[in-house]
């Protein structure tokens, strides 16, 4: 199993172009030192931390993170490796995540803002919710979930909501009861929400009636109807749909409320005023939530996070790497519907008694000065966003940050590789050369950061995430499992040699897939109970520089990172194939100036299909939006006479990706139909086009292509 040359998922075997292969070639960058002022007040300024979290002290070192939490009962074993790779953390410990984020702060911070909600319409004033108010809201809603909806420990609930404070209230209320929440990104379609609800076995859906985005009040409740239908098709009955109203007492939806199934939460809450609910003490390894993410198959998978290990890891990393103090105003611009929002808007910051800002809308509404006005007004001092948002704000308002009086001490970039020149704009213009930047590499599955510089101690290198966090031991392995040494200038697969508390427990309902996806490729001995034999395969290509900094190149599997969000190419292809006109579909990643990567769709039509091509393209776009959501909208839909194929009939996505990205096409002599490649190239690039960018040929040095 270790030397898995025939692994069907490896890009080498399939001959498909992975994101990592179209990564641009950056040169070594100059280093930037964190300011002395920052270091003076930083939570983590002791260089001894690396030794403390060194392999000699593993796994005990992670008690340092667990000690940041309040436990109902202390653990008796830090790590149990009896059933690899199903690691158990803080065995015997009991705690409640909601208690740690809310109740325990009441004594010292009850009148301090826990959340500040910034509505998208600028005429609507921000709303501060104190820890005391948060406690009341969470308790009342928990009582409603328990007594009205009949939910109890271990039940699952699907939450399809936008960025309004009722979302964290809902999550915390679930956590208080031990109910496993599964938040679906608000921008996903009702169909996507219903499929996830069915997979998790949720019988209760929680929605918002409407929200503002891009200047429009979006009718969101309509998605609930579709979700209920989609869940039913998959065999799951939804018996309650609970709906938060953006303006209590006033409906923002055209959808009907189905009697006996749909309820406005503001109506119901009247019966729960002042009610409190005892937190349910959970075993450290009881699940806290599911987060569905795209993988290599058509079906999204439910990443199952545990209570104790996850809470310890996000709290520890928020403290040390986000440098959160209770006095900070922290604004992470991600959406709570993604893992970044779970770990670094809700659970980590609130566990540390921070003030966490929640912004409803898009960053450049009504103009690209908006984020900087929010930062100025609320005195935000820690700012966290994605390269896509930075690229967009830089492009649309490069001088805007200079017009506002805000001062960040710390900034984060997360979710995709950042180009060095974009990094430098962030550093110079947004950070005013004072703020320290961390480029944090991690994933839905990992719960929290894996690679980053230590903000007060390490030099920053534009475009590189940095070394492994203390207690995380990453390596770059080649396809045969051989370690690529630092400075070798060869890209390989980044893996983590050891378990850590934030890693998912399993994929909901599919333990085999969990093992197959993350551990099978590099497992040294499937019978071994030693963690050393089970490196975690992340699915990203990376380079390790001489100085120990990792540069992440992108996905090596059938996943595209669009604007920092994961989309499965297979998911998009499956959506296309639901149309009767389509015979074959292939989705490839294409470089985009703002979003990093976007999907492009190639289609061949069934013989005899009579629908005109433009109409097919329109139908495909609509179908993708309905089945997945607008974020999966392809940049182009290209209808081709035939797909380039190997002699055994496999579609060569590598060739299509090379054409879409104006890269060298490479060797196509072994294809079954090489002539079609030139036809497709001419139809996409025109007759005169030549390869502009380096292609798979140049990437041979990385050893990642065929
Ligand atoms: C990518 C988001 C480069 C990577 C937290 C990973 C990054 C995927 C970085 C996970 C970074 C995340 N630099 N690439 N700092 N952070 N990625 O699950 O390809 O939505 O595998 O989690 O995003 O996306 P996910």
Could you name the key traits of this structure?
706 residues; alpha/beta; eight-stranded mixed β-sheet; seven-stranded mixed β-sheet; 21 helices; 30 strands; globular; disordered N terminus; disordered C terminus; binds 5'-O-[(S)-ethoxy(hydroxy)phosphoryl]adenosine
What does this structure look like?
The chain is an alpha/beta fold and 706 residues long. Helix content is 27%, strand content 21%. It contains 21 helices and 30 strands. An eight-stranded mixed sheet has the order 12-11-8-6-7-14-15-23, with helices on both faces. Strands 5-4-17-16-18-19-20 form a seven-stranded mixed sheet, with helices on both faces. Strand 28 (582-592) and strand 29 (596-605) form a beta hairpin. Helix 9 (190-200) crosses helix 10. It is globular and about 75 Å long. The two termini are 21 Å apart. 54% of the residues are buried. Bound molecules: 5'-O-[(S)-ethoxy(hydroxy)phosphoryl]adenosine.
Structural class of the secondary structure composition?
alpha/beta
Strand arrangement, largest sheet?
12-11-8-6-7-14-15-23
Shape: globular
The percent of residues in helical segments reads: 25-40%
Largest sheet: 8 strands, mixed
How many strands? 30
